[in-house]
Amino acid sequence: IFWFYASFAMMLGDAFGAKVTYSRVNAVVLMLVGNVLFAIVFGVVVLGMQRMTASRTVFAERMANINETMRWKGVPERFQRRVRRFYEFLWLVDGAAANEDKGQGASPMQWLDELPTGLRVEINTSRYSPVLRNCILFQDVDWEAIVMIAQQLTPMLYMPGEVIVKEGLVGYSM
Known about the structure:
By secondary structure, the protein is mainly alpha-helical.
């Protein structure tokens, strides 16, 4: 508070520190620059908080719709808990990006489908070829086949502790 009064008194020409006009102008300019920088930083923080709140609101609305639908369809409570845990896990993994500017139910990787085919092929190949090459089943497969297989892969998200495959059961994907 002291420095506010000292700066204000200096602008008015009072007895605080600067007696020369140049010093007063310099103090006023520095004070204005400081205020502008403070306003910018404060604005960025407020916008970040607002964006976080908006993303949380979208997530809360989505969860409310899902919960209402599950109750209406008579989904047993134990499955409702698993669905809620899945979406909470998805929120933790993908954060606000999963809900932001994509609408409800959109995949976090939806942007990949919008890319030109050549670029999408290169991205998918770079993402999946190391995994395919490390798999014993694909170690001796030629590069063109790896590229083709990589284009057919779809990422699947599983929660920690969830059973992915049970021995002896028929599988529908790989």
